[in-house]
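Chapter summary example.
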Amino acid sequence: MDLVTEAAPTPNPPSTRNSRFPRPHRDDVLLAVVSVLAGVLLWSLGVYSTNNRHFFPAWAALVPLLVIGPMELLRRTAPRLTLAVGTGAVIADQFTVGNLGTVIVFTDLMYAAVVYGKPAMARRLPITTGLVTVVVTVVSVAWFRTPQALMVGVITGIVSFGPALTGATLRNQREAAESARLRAEQTALLAEMDRTQAVASERARMARELHDMVANHLSAIAIHSTAALSIDSPATSREALGVIRENSVQGLAEMRRLIGLLRAAGAEQEAAATPSLDGLDALLEQARTNGTASGLDFVLHDGRPPGQPLPAPVELAAYRIVQESLTNALKHASPGTVRVRVSRADGLLTVGVDSPYAGEQPGPRAPGSGAGLVGMRERTELLGGEFTAGRAGPVWQVRAVLPAEEKAVAG
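The structure predicted for these 411 residues follows.
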């Protein structure tokens, strides 16, 4: 900041006048004192700027100096006022023996008016002083008709146009630097927002993968462990323990595969760890084993034409939707047949799972959190598809329509 920071509040608050006119910058105070003293010294040594065309006594050259010198105190806070007073003082100085101190102070006030003034004034002053320089040069040559008359225009340009142009250049550089700083801050902010969004998206993806891979096995473990505890039959308990062990081993393998996916550095490892719709038969076979205690059977109707591969994200999403639907069927479905349908037509892949549902049924059931439906909907919407789930009479229906073309998924 160009202005000195105001002091902390004291028991006796400053007057209204002090708060309205900020304290001058210490550099401006030093500049004002040095300017006045230097002007007085030059005058006392007889160094004049207009020695041959004065109309007043020599001491009169000190009056414009003493008027313009204190204006340095306000060069930052009131540039318009200081420039107006300085212009009057330098014009009055031309009718005396002249003081170089007055002229030098005026050049600084012109420079400060461009640097610290309002944008409109900063734009106008270089143009105005340039025009004044040209006019003075032309008039001087026309009036005196000597080559030396060009020096009048040169001096006018040095005193007025030069400082204004210098101030405009500095101001433009400062504004460009400020714009660059703001752009850098904005870029950093956008990058941080992108990073935060990417982290949140990755956390959501990991949550969906973890839920879909593990929930199926844990649900089967919960159902069969409940059956083993509630049914007093060694054969039933042994069968339930076998299912529990199988799901525990498979769940552990899924967890290891997820950990490997998170640690994988290359796309080949990720592709190897991604399940596809070719594994639906094994998925339904596992569901049949887990659903025996609940009286459930599972049937697959695969209507996909052969030889038409799907994009990897679509394969994964469809597989996880079927997997989560089967898990929900194990938790909530009534005894009966769960039908899984997969078809492809018109560039769309349709996945449907119908399970019998007639309210809460007696027998062992695993609790649900509702995260499964949220995950299936998120998977579908991320690919630009449509997802529906709900009751249709005695049947719970899950439908997902996904784009089956590579360009649609990439877009």
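To summarize the output: The first strand starts at residue 296 and ends at 303.
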